[in-house]
Structures are given as C-alpha cells and as structure tokens.
Amino acid sequence: MSSNSLSLTSRLSEARWIAGVLFVLSCFLWVDQERLSVFVVPAPLPVHTFLETVTIVIFASVFIVCWNAFGEVRKKSSVILAVAFLCTAILGFFHTLTFQGMPGFETAGDMHKSMSFWLISRSIIATTLLGLAFDPEDSEISQMQSYGVLSAGLLATLGWGILVFAFPNLIPLTFIQGAGQTSFKVACETSLIAAHILAAVLFYRHALRFQIDKSAEHLHIDRVPLFLATVLMAMSEVYFSIYAETSDVNVVIGHTFLLFSAIAIYRSMVAVNIHTPYASLAASTNNLAKSAEELKLERQRLSRMIDTAIDGIITVDDKQEIILVNPAAALIFGYEVNELVGTSLNRLIPARHRETHKSHVQQFGEAGITRRKMGTHFEDFYVTGCRASGEEFPIEASIAHQLENGKRYYTVIFRDITDRKVAKEKMAKYHEQLSQLSATLQSIREEERKHIARELHDDLGQLLAALRMDLSLLQRDLSFLDRNKPTINSMDQLILTAITTLRRIATDLRPRALDEGGLFFALQTLQRDFSHRHRINCELIADEDQLTLDDARSTAIFRIIQESLTNVARHSEASDVQIEFQRSHAELKLNINDNGKGIVEEDMGKTSSFGLVGMRERIKAMNGEFQVLSTPGEGTTLEIRLPLTD
Q1: Which of 121, 203, 305, 483 could be joined to 227 by an S-S link, Cβ 3.0–4.6 Å?
Q2: Nearest-angstrom CA–CA distance, 335 and 46
Q3: For residues 536 and 572, is the Cβ–Cβ distance under 8 A?
C-alpha cells in the first residue's frame, strides 16, 4: 500500500472518530433538552452575528478559489460550486442582517424573513453538496458560459431577496413569537438533514475509492473533509430544528457545528487548491535542484571522458574558433591545450586546404546532417592536419554539429592514421608485387606447358610413331610373326596406348587447337572431351566471332573454363553444365552454370580453394570482375566480365 493510501485511510478514520464522538455527544444533548434549556445565551445577537460572519467569510473564500483557480477555461463543477457558495454567502448575509434584534428588524415578522433567508441558503448548500456527492461527469465550459452561470445565480439571489423583503407572506410562516419554529420550518430542516446524511454517505464512499489528486489541471476536492462537513451540517440542522427562542443555547451549538462544517469545506476545497500550486512549485524546485546536480555530475563525467579520450576532440563555433580541445588533440598537433583554445581552426589545417575546408563545413551545416565521417577510406586522405612543426599528416575524423541558443557549433573527433596509411601503402605495394609475380608465374607456366607439350608431341610422339612403323614391318615377316604373334600384338597395343596417353597429356598441357584453330575450337574440343570423360552433359553457347581474342586472353579464358569444369567434375555432382558467352564492344561476359549441389558460403573463402583463387588471379590480371553465385542444392553460377579495351 502506498504512503498516499495510508494517509487517506488514517485521515478517514480520524474523520469517523470525530463525527462519532460529536454524534454521541449530540444525542445526549438532544434527549436531555430540559436540562439544556436551563442554559440561556445572555447576548445571543453578537454571538450569532460573529459565528455567521465567519461562516460567510469562509463561503466567500470558497467562491474566490473555485472561480479563479483555472483561468479562462473552467470546469463545470468549479463554476457551480463557486456560484453556489457566493449565493449562499449573500443569503447568509441577508439572514444575519434580518436576525431578530438587528437594527430595523425587531419583530417576529423580521425573524420570519431571517428564517426564510436561512432556509434558502441552506437549501442551496445542501443541493450543491448532494449534486457534488453524486459525482457527475465533469466538463469544461467557456468564459462566457461561466459568466452566464454567475449572472443567473446572482439574479436568482436577487429574486429571492426581493421576494423575502417585499413579499414575505408568500412563504409559509417559519417563526412565531413565543411559540418558536413552525411545523413548516421543522419539515424543511428535516429535509435538509436527510439531504446532508445522503451526501455524507456518498462522500464517505468516494473517500474509500478515490485518492487526492494534487495536479493543477482539475478542481481538487478532498472527500474526507466533505464527509465530515456534511455530517456536521446534518447535526447542526437538528439543533436548528429544536430551538424555541433566539437565546436558546441550541442556536449557538448549531452555529458552532455549522462553523466547523464551513472550516471542513474550506479544508476540502480552498486549502487544498491553495496548497497545490505551492506544493507543485516546491516539487518543481526540488526536481530542478536534482536536475542541476545531475547535470553537474554529467558535465564532470563528460569532462573526464573528454580529457582521458585517446582520440582527439575539438569543438569550434560558426566562426571556426576553437572553444574546446582535449589533451589528446593538443598532443597530436604538438601544442598545449591553452595554446589552442580561442584560436582559429585554420592553425591546424594546411594553407592550401583552408578555403576548401571552410566551404565543406558550411555546406555540412546547411545540409542539416548532424554527423559525417571524413577520411575513412585509405584511398581518400583529403582530411589533412598540420602539426606545430609544419608537418602534414592524414586524419580519420567524424564531425557533428548542433544548435545552441541560435549559434552553431561543430565537434570533430579524430585520430592520426599516419601509421595506418603507411601500412596500407606497403600492403598495396606488396599485393601489387604479388599480383605481378602471380601473372609472371602464370605466363612462365603457360610457356613451359607449351614447350613441354611441343616436345612431347614433336619428339616423343614421332619416336613412338616410328617404333610402331618398325613393328608393322616385323609383322610382315610371316615366319617371325608365327613364332612371336602374341608378343608383337601386345607390343602394338602398348605403343598405341602410349601414343593416346601422350596426346592426352600434351592436350592437357597445351591444346594444339588453341594455337591452330583458336579459342572457339579449343573450347569445343574441351567440351566434347569433358562430356565423354565424365558423362556430364556440357553445352557451349558461343560462336567463333565472339571468341576471336588475343593469345593472352584466349589462354586465360581457356584455363578458367578448364578449371571450372574440373571443379564441377570433382565437387558439384552436377548432370548439366552450360557455358555461355556474350560479347559487346567494350566487354566479354562469361557465365558458367551447373545444376549441382552448390557451394556453401564458408567454403568460398577457404585458403585451400586454389581453383577459385587461381581464377580470381587470372581475371584480376585482365582487370576483370569475378562473382560466384551459389545456393546449396540449387547449383552454382560463375559470372565473369572481362574488358576488351586496354
């Protein structure tokens, strides 16, 4: 249970205790009227006037708060309460003015007028509180409507005043000199008692259900004091219904109860609404103090972070004047912190870049982009700093800007990437050398293959052919053939196999069709041989004109397709392969598709995938583009683009 709920429960218990004690005490007084009648008020008029005046002042205070608490747009409940208590205060003043014994009001008829004003004012109070106890749905009303309700209430009060003063006989008699109150007056008091009891029950139920709302957006009504107020009003009306003379002590007791009731109403409406803005202001002040302390701690924490940051941090205003610099930034540029604060940022920029940098920063601020990275690519070192010694160095930086009180500020977080740039340049140089070495090795290997294939074909091939011719001559000697026929046939078969193997090895090393017929015929031979050897359907979509290329490109493309078909045979488990060429004026596009099991993405980057590495190197040597597209279970596609211009 929250502290507010505990407080509400405690206050409600206290209100019940007060109401219970006063009710028990009143019961003794109501029952023992003979003993109570012994006590007579010696000066009833001043006592009555004092008690009634205090009550009128309290009701007027309720009007002032309820009317002025919300400015031009008011709540319907606040307007009705304000007007009701204002009318009650006015009618209470008329009641006090006409009370028997006041100057000009000495007769029993004047007392009838006073009792009439009393009943009217009590009826307005009872009706208003009962209506509030039923807790109707509230809504906002305009200023014009508010003044309309106020005007209607004042006109009604004026009408009641005229009626009582000018035509008192139209109202049933309420007081008879010597006899006291009439049955009409007692009946009216009884009705008021019933109304107050019903309102007390409803307010008690509200107090159990609601907590006090301290916000300043709605009318604040504390139901606990209202419960006590309506109970006290009900008991006061009992006292007002049993007295016979104005000097009766019941009148004083009733007015005392009424005063306590007015104080409770004041507590429920006026005191709460006056206290709420101050409580809200105090809470806002405390929150502001806490926020200021938190802001101070945040500034200290931020200051420590900036001072200990490894990266340099510089903040400049829209005039490019440095207003903040951390020790790391000062160290990078070779200055002390106090040497840079208040100076121009141009001090840290090479002279040739200052105008360009100024225009870049201005465009950056006008574009509305709050962050931007600069110098993040190794190939783009346009962000250059200048040390105190005059040495220039590359910077990687991010810039952000913000508006504060109409002024624009730019904050740069940067780092010196001289070592990274040097390392990148070395890596690029090494990579270029490796690429050149790879291309040279490819060329040397291709030439070696060509030489070995030529030697095998021209020399060893001719020797094997001559050996077979000699063997054919021996086969003509019938006497020799009869004795050695199995041996001679075996030798002939071995020589034929050796010649076939020699041709295959020579073709793998360097197909003669590539030198004699060009790339198109070499690929046709490779296609037929691949399909025959591996039982995989291979389709070549190209024509001879598309593949009229120089020797270097022809050899590279042939080796790429040869390696691709080798990978298909070894790994893909495909049944169909398609090799398609498309040629334009500027480039040659080659697609190699299979319907195999595909390549897992992790396998593409393995260092052991020498086939893909070799293809990439060959394509890179020709300034081409190479892409592998594969989905497991759906095959693999190699896309190759080669420029045809140097």
Answers
A1: 203
A2: 90
A3: no
Paired tokens of 417? 């990437």
For the chain, the average pLDDT equals: 78
**Among 63, 39, 77, 55, residue whose Cα is nearest residue 122:** 55
Q: Residue 480 corresponds to which tokens in the numbers above?
A: 């020799």
pLDDT tens across 334-380, in order?
A: 898 888 888 888 888 888 877 777 777 666 666 655 445 555 444 44
DSSP H helices in 98-211? 108-133, 143-166, 183-209
Question: Which DSSP string do the residues of 443-489 spell out, in sequence order?
Answer: HHHHHHHHHHHHHIIIIIHHHHHHHHHHHHHHHH-HHHHHHHHHHHH
pLDDT for res 155: 94
Question: Given CA atoms 34, 39, 42, 47 in this order, what sign does their dihedral have?
Answer: negative
Predicted structure pTM score: 0.47
Other C-beta atoms within 10 Å of 34: how many? 7
pLDDT tens digit sequence for 15-44: 889 888 888 888 888 887 777 666 777 777
Mean pLDDT within 447-451: 62
State the pLDDT confidence band at 445, using cuts at 50, 70 and 90: low
Q: Which of 109, 94, 14 is nearest to 53 (CA)?
A: 94
- Alpha carbons within 13 A on the beta-carbon side of 188: 21
CA separation, residue 520 to residues 99, 449, 516, 537, 624 (Å): 130, 20, 11, 18, 20
Q: What is the mean pLDDT of residues 163-191?
A: 83
Q: Residue 609, exposed/middle/buried by CB under 10 A (0-12, 13-18, 19+)? A: middle
Among the listed residues 106, 38, 37, the one whose alpha carbon sits nearest the alpha carbon of residue 244: 37
Structure tokens at 252: 């004083």
CB-based contacts of 332, cutoff 8 Å, min separation 6 = 312, 385, 387, 414, 415, 416
Distance CA 642, CA 543 (A): 17
Cα of 584 vs its chain's centroid, Å = 52
pLDDT band at 216 (very low <50, low <70, confident <90, very high): very low
> pLDDT at residue 507 above 80?
no
Q: How far apart are CA 470 and CA 46, in angstroms?
A: 162
What span, in angstroms and rounded, lies between the C-alpha atoms of 416 and 353? 17
Both tokens assigned to 598 = 């595909």
Average pLDDT estimate for 618-628: 84
Which are the contacts of 305, defined by CB distance < 8 A and separation ≥ 6?
A: none
Residue 100 φ/ψ region, left for φ over 0, alpha for ψ in the -120 to 50 degree band, beta for the rest:
beta
Ramachandran region, residue 483 (left: φ > 0; alpha: ψ -120 to 50; beta: rest):
alpha
Cα 206 to Cα 14, 24, 89, 201, 226, distances in angstroms: 16, 24, 27, 9, 10
The tokens for 292 are 């200021």
Residue-level pLDDT at 136: 63
